[in-house]
Design a protein that fits this description.
The complex is a heterotrimer of chains A (652), B (274) and C (439). Chain B has 12 helices and 5 strands. Chain B has 274 residues and is an alpha/beta fold. In chain B, α11 crosses α12. Chain C starts with 10 loop residues before the first strand and ends with a strand. Chains B and C meet through α1, α2, α5, α9 and α12 of B and α1, α2, α4, α5 and α6 of C.
């Protein structure tokens, strides 16, 4: 028995005692094991299950195992699987959304977090860092993945310091290893006769106190240092990380992206084996009648087609767009989002790429080391929490041929306390959730203006009066109306873009004395495509300047014909402090911001509302990322200064 | 779906092995429920009820391989609202499409002593080369879960969830170890559309592309990589399989067939090559 | 389409497309005024040229390809092919591999026989157009059949990765053999299914059958130690006894003037019958004890079983029970082989083999070159061998039902054809036959 504070030595023959201790309390021990000639992470029942005498040899696109290398247990550096498989499972039931066949009522049953308790043995330093990164991503923000946190909190971690390295390793460059510093309960370093053991937590200390063995000798402790130092020396420093974030973001136009895309298969292997990738999708399993709908969260990848697609098109249609997204997210914008690099240098993406693309080479080719550049950056305030609510449809009012405004009455008032510009995620049984901006808040109801663009929105529009619809929200950032106090306000809307702007109009008109002049410039394709046509004259009567323009004229139209920027040309908006809120198709917003800047509105006071593919609405599935931002969480409203040149760049 | 009558569903077969139709009968747990929610008006393998249409949904298995089938599919299309092709034969021409680069009369003559009595087209082609297709289920055979998802989506009104990602994505989710990287086994998974549940790697062999190439599959890059340890001929053969006629695999497949079955130098005077 | 309009004294029954058979076929029966009967079973499967598709391929590729000849019996094609290759290449397979192959084949028999008995043939006996309508009134029966079919599919899927077109069969064994625990989930369902199959035999024996009497020549495999499945000599009820290498000495394929393709027949021209009836008759002594007991309890004599074509459903039910019982025995004793597949070297020569598909004897013959590449193939499916017997029986049977209402008579004749469980996609050759039968 060893006293808790010391460094212990566990003889090789007593490794089973550690396994027994880990299994106490009904834990399952997970560790590396060889099956069918390949190493997987699976349940370890006895020491014989561990890969004794096995070694791996890795190269880009190539992994080979061989045995007969003596009696070392932990000579295999790593395999394809990472611990992510267990704390963030590939398929995870999120809940059931059911519709009663009898009365059509809707209910949502979230899944309870998994109670199983695991002990991981064989966790490398890079993998510890990966667990830490997932802690920040999945449990460190406003919205927490409860299932992840439950599994993580329940898992014991026995780390192993690497005494061998693989050719793909670069933990040294990423600052994550090979030394194990924190995040572990116990850490082992394997020597010839046994294991030097240290604790890294109070749980670890309690285990250490009960392990057979003795204190480690100074000679053994020195051997540990020497072994790990030798591993460090063997790895070297393959990647120049100094200023990597900025170097990479400066090279969004590099021709190398297209070159690597010619080799890349977009097969998703790199993201699947990566221990820090976290993007997911939802998958719905329904019974034949659509009464029971099980929602699963499923590992997805930014390399997949459709990952960045919305009804209007695909934001990343080319393979090179997606490779760029992955590399820049992993090594650059992750820093902005979470404070560290997203890469831990484990080398799996290099080894398991079927065509052997090596990120270290690509980084060196795309973003060679140079002097760092400082770039200021502003982030908006966090959103208010969004819980699931059931609402009842009270009325539906057609606006245009394909758009209607729905009046929804929630049972709880939280949904009504949203800000202008926020959105809700609409949940219908059997359909993937989708975002819709709130187009008006009232005392006991809210209005959603919806265009039927696909089967899900069509189903929403077909809901009968009295039917039930699930909403989560309000979500996202709103228009900063408080910044408009005392200023002139220019509101520019294109088509259905007027819907998220209407709550701004409501707020401005309700307290008109606190603001300056209000101008609404509204453009639509045809007169019949305009929203809220009965209100527009009423707004004009209350003192707003309401200008309308259509791309193509229609019967009875005597107004302007052209694009909405025509309404703003030649106006002098710079002589008084002015703030602008713009919402419409992306090209329209780009053109409008350009015109408004020319007209004198400063960039810090130009706000746009962006649309991206949203699956979860709460910044956890990764789909809506744009550069460093999660549009659902950091937006959809952004100041032009935050966006920089991301706004006008293709394929981001 | 609000309906006053059940959707009229037909299941028909062109040149194929019947395996894809059988997949519907292999939904044993759901079959009776399916029969209560869909009116199977035409499904010769399973029922003596017959109908010439019109059909709300028509599942078509098999490739177009005879003149009669070429006419039949046009006729069926005219009487169908939603035409769904099921299986590699209907979606890609099937294994029998490998004759498309050969001298079909010579093939016919090698199997039938009097080939002139056999009616067959020189090519076996996917249904989409003859009529517009509204949806497709790939596979050889199709996957029963995907078939069930299609039927469920039709009832609920949503788009069926049929992902266009590589087999690799599902293989990794299922925790299978890569036979290509770790075993050196030739595997077409990275360029093949997912759907089967990544079965081949589960049984330690390489994917042979039953589900056909995914959209924008980078077959050139994969072929180049595989060619490091194999001859060009061996790499081409990998693509000459059950979906070898699909555009992304077609060129490599054609070269392979030319090597495997060189055109006869002179016509055989009798019978078969046995 | 059924027409019954007499023309010039002829009665003409035409079924435009046979239903509830696998594949596409049609029936044309002409009865002349003088009572002579002409039967045409036309099968119009489009040719896919499998015997040519396999030329230039390796043996493992051929195993993948020939499965696609038939979606219901892909295992049969893979087994005939792989054993033929192993026979030529002199590959010794591990006994555990042999057991696994037998289990795989049992799975296919179970799935195929359950499909046929419950979904394709039972509706004829109980008077329904399909099993789905039958399920309204006979839910337990249909559910029982679906459960057994599902179990058969599950067995194939565990050994072969999926129920249709298994992918793990290789020359020398399997790409991967299941661990023993993977078969555990089958134990309990097999026990239940065996009991259900015993009830099915009893039920099949209780069905009313139309009158039928003929004395067929029966042909199947015969093995000294097991019920015939994947190995054995070819034997008949009237003295044929040869190795599959010598198939051509007793059987051959000819193209006849009225046929679109090659017809398999015995050298002496006498029609012969393959399938469950033949096997149960010729290998009754090797039935699993539970199957033998169930057969005995039906009190149907061996003579009656083979002479009444409609009793094929009983023979099929007995084989369903046999396959379930044998599968249960294999699962109980399975231990994985040391290696999933034995290695092999290419060799030139001729590879011939026969195995018992659910529908009957399936014969494969391949010519390989010195690199082990296939240069030629001959594949003779059971249904194209049963052709002559089917039409012979049709001609014999027809006069007995001519007096019935037309629709009823046509239904009876379809029921007769379905007794053979004809698998028409397999027919790499399709046939058009006329039989003139003088009275």
């Amino acid at each position: 028995m060893v006293t808790a504070a010391g460094t212990a030595f566990l003889p090789r023959a007593r490794l089973d005692a550690l396994l027994d201790l880990l299994r106490e309390g009904g834990r399952t021990v997970i560790g590396p094991t060889v099956r069918d000639g390949m190493v997987v992470l699976d349940e370890i029942a006895t020491v014989a299950d561990l890969p004794v005498g096995w070694r791996d040899v890795q190269a880009p696109g190539r992994y080979r195992l061989s045995d007969g290398h003596g009696d070392r247990v932990f000579d295999i550096v790593n395999g394809q699987m990472s611990w992510k498989q267990f704390i963030f499972p590939p398929r995870q039931k999120v809940g059931e959304m059911n519709r009663s066949a009898a009365d059509g009522s809707v209910s949502f049953q979230p899944s309870a977090p998994d109670p199983s308790r695991l002990a991981f043995i064989g966790v490398r330093a890079c993998e510890l860092a990966a667990l830490g990164i997932h802690d920040r991503v999945l449990a460190g923000g406003t919205f927490v993945d409860e299932d992840y946190r439950a599994r993580r909190d329940a898992a014991l971690v026995v780390a192993v310091q690497c005494t061998r390295s693989a050719s793909g390793c670069f933990c040294t460059s990423m600052g994550t290893g090979p030394e194990v510093r924190s995040g572990h309960d116990l850490v082992l370093t394997e020597l010839d006769d046994g294991f030097v053991v240290n604790a890294g937590s109070s749980a670890g200390e309690r285990l250490l106190a009960r392990l057979p063995g003795r204190l480690a000798t100074p000679g053994e402790e020195a051997s540990v240092s020497a072994a790990v130092a030798a591993t460090r020396a063997a790895i070297g420093d393959p990647v120049a990380t100094n200023g990597l974030r900025d170097r990479l973001m400066d090279q969004l136009d590099s021709p190398r992206w297209a070159q690597v895309a010619d080799r890349c298969l977009a097969c998703t292997n790199c993201t699947m084996v990566c221990p820090t990738c976290f993007c997911t999708s939802t998958s719905i399993g329904s019974d034949l009648d659509g009464t029971v709908n099980v929602t699963e969260r499923v590992w997805d990848s930014c390399f997949n087609p459709g990952f960045a697609k919305v009804a209007g098109g695909d934001f990343r249609p080319r393979r090179e767009d997606r490779y760029r997204q992955w590399l820049t997210h992993k090594f650059a914008t992750w820093v902005d989002q979470f404070g560290t690099s997203g890469c831990v240098g484990c080398g799996r993406c290099v080894t398991w790429c079927p065509v052997g693309i090596d990120v270290r080479e690509e980084l060196a080719a795309i973003a060679p080391p140079a002097l760092p550049v400082e770039r200021p950056f502003i982030r908006p305030a966090a959103a208010t929490p969004g819980r699931f609510e059931i609402t009842t449809l009270r009325a539906s009012h057609p606006e245009t041929a394909d758009t209607a405004t729905l009046t929804l009455v929630p049972s709880e008032p939280a949904l009504l306390a949203g800000l202008p510009g926020q959105f809700v995620m609409v949940d219908l049984p059997g359909f993937p959730a989708f975002p819709i901006s709130v187009s008006r808040y009232a005392t006991d109801h809210l209005l959603l203006t919806v265009r039927g663009a696909g089967p899900a929105t069509a189903a929403l529009l077909n809901t009968p009066i009295g039917g039930q619809i699930g909403l989560r929200g309000p979500l996202g950032t709103g228009w900063p109306v408080d910044r408009a106090l005392g200023r002139d306000v220019v509101i520019v809307a294109g088509g259905i873009g007027l819907a998220p702007l209407r709550p701004v109009v409501d707020t401005l008109l309700a307290e008109q004395g606190r603001f300056g002049k209000i101008l609404l410039a509204y453009g639509a394709r045809t007169p019949a495509d305009r929203l809220f046509t009965s209100e527009l004259p009423a707004w004009a009567e209350r003192g707003m300047e309401v200008l309308q323009i259509v791309d193509r004229s229609g019967p009875g139209w005597a107004g302007h014909v052209g694009v909405v920027t025509n309404l703003l040309d030649q106006r002098d908006l710079g002589s008084r402090p002015t703030i602008a809120f713009i919402c419409g198709p992306e090209r329209m917003m780009q053109a409008t911001s350009s015109v408004l800047r020319d007209a004198g509105v400063s960039r810090e006071r130009l706000f746009v509302s962006l649309e991206r593919h949203m699956q979860c609405g709460i910044g956890l599935c990764g789909h809506c990322q744009m550069g460093p931002f999660f549009v659902c969480r950091d937006g959809p409203v952004f100041a032009l200064t935050e966006l920089g040149d991301l706004f006008t760049r293709e394929g981001i | 779906m609000v309906a006053t009558r059940l959707p009229r569903v037909g299941v028909v077969k062109l040149a194929s092995c019947d395996g894809c139709q059988l997949t519907l009968l292999d939904l044993e747990d759901e079959l009776i429920a399916i029969g209560q929610r869909f009116d199977l008006v035409e499904f010769p393998e399973a029922t003596s009820r017959r109908s010439m249409g019109p059909y709300d949904v028509l599942l078509v298995e098999g490739s177009v391989s005879t003149p009669e089938q070429a006419e039949q599919i046009v006729d069926l299309r005219a009487r169908t609202k939603l035409l769904v092709t099921i299986g590699a034969c209907a979606t890609a021409g099937g294994i029998q499409a490998l004759r498309n680069w050969s001298d079909e009369p010579e093939w016919r003559a090698s199997v039938y002593p009097r080939p002139e009595e056999i009616e067959s087209l020189a090519t076996s082609t996917p249904v989409a080369e003859h009529v517009t297709v509204d949806a497709e289920l790939r596979g050889c055979p199709i996957d029963p879960h995907q078939l069930l998802e299609l039927l469920t989506a039709l009832r609920v009104g949503r788009r069926p969830q049929l992902p266009d990602e590589a087999v690799c994505a599902e293989c990794k989710r299922l925790g299978r170890i890569c036979v290509l990287v770790a075993g050196g086994t030739a595997c077409l998974g990275p360029v093949t559309q997912v759907g089967c549940g990544a079965l081949c790697p589960a049984y330690l062999r390489g994917c042979y592309a039953c589900f056909g190439p995914r959209d924008a599959a980078n077959t050139i890059s994969l072929a180049g990589w595989l060619g490091q340890d194999r001859t060009a001929v061996e790499v081409d053969r990998l693509f000459a399989g059950f979906t070898g006629y699909a555009p992304a695999f077609r060129e490599a497949s054609r070269r392979a067939v030319e090597v495997m079955q060189p055109p006869a130098r002179r016509r055989r005077s009798k019978g078969k090559t046995t | 389409m059924h027409t019954g309009t007499p023309q010039d004294g002829d009665l003409h029954f035409e079924v435009g497309q046979l239903t509830r058979v696998e594949g596409e076929g049609s029936l044309d029966l002409r009865v002349a005024a003088d009572g002579t009967v002409a039967a045409q079973l036309r099968i119009f499967e489009a040719p896919r040229y499998f015997e040519r598709l396999v030329v230039g391929r390796t043996p493992d590729e051929v195993i993948d390809i020939v499965a696609r000849i038939c979606g219901i019996c892909p295992v049969a094609y893979q087994m005939s092919a792989v054993h033929a290759f192993e026979h030529l290449l002199e590959v010794e397979i591990d006994p555990a591999v042999r057991l696994l192959r037998r289990l795989l084949y049992c799975g296919e028999w179970i799935e195929s026989h359950a499909l046929h008995i419950f979904l394709l043939h039972a509706p004829d006996f109980l008077g329904y157009p399909s099993a789905l309508e039958m399920a309204h009134d006979h839910l337990e029966l249909v559910s029982r059949g679906l459960t057994m079919k599902k179990l058969g599919n599950r067995i194939v899927a565990i050994v072969g990765a999926r129920a249709i077109h298994p992918l793990s069969v290789r020359v020398g064994g399997f790409s991967r053999a299941p661990r023993a625990q993977e078969l555990d989930e089958l134990r309990s369902p097999l026990e239940t299914a065996i009991t259900d199959a015993e009830a099915t035999v009893k039920w099949a024996a209780s069905l009313d059958t139309p009158p039928s009497d003929r004395e067929p020549r029966l042909v199947s495999l015969r093995h000294p130690g097991e019920y015939p499945m994947s190995d054995g000599r070819i034997v008949s009820s009237d003295g044929i006894d040869l190795s599959p290498d010598d198939w051509r000495s007793a059987f051959h394929e000819v193209q006849v003037p009225w046929s679109h393709a090659l017809q398999a027949s015995a050298a002496d021209g006498v029609p012969y019958l393959l399938g469950p009836t033949a096997r149960v008759a010729l290998a009754a002594d090797q039935l699993h004890p539970r199957a033998a007991a169930a057969l005995k309890a039906t009190r149907i004599s061996p003579e009656a079983l083979r002479r009444n074509v409609f009793h094929s459903i009983v023979a099929r039910a007995v084989e369903l029970l046999h396959a379930l019982a044998e599968a249960a025995d294999i699962v109980a004793s399975y231990a994985p082989p040391a290696r999933p597949a034995a290695s092999w070297k290419p060799k030139a020569g001729v590879a011939a083999w026969a195995t018992e598909a659910p529908r009957g004897l399936l014969f494969h013959r391949y010519t390989l070159d010195s690199k082990g590449i296939v240069r030629g193939a001959q594949i003779v499916p059971p249904t194209s061998q049963n052709q002559a017997a089917i039409e012979h029986d049709l001609a014999l049977f027809a006069p007995a039902v001519l007096h019935l209402p037309h629709d009823e008579a046509t239904r009876r004749m379809e029921q007769l054809i379905r007794s053979y469980d004809p698998c028409i996609s397999c027919a790499t050759h399709f046939l058009q036959l006329k039989i003139e039968h003088d009275r």
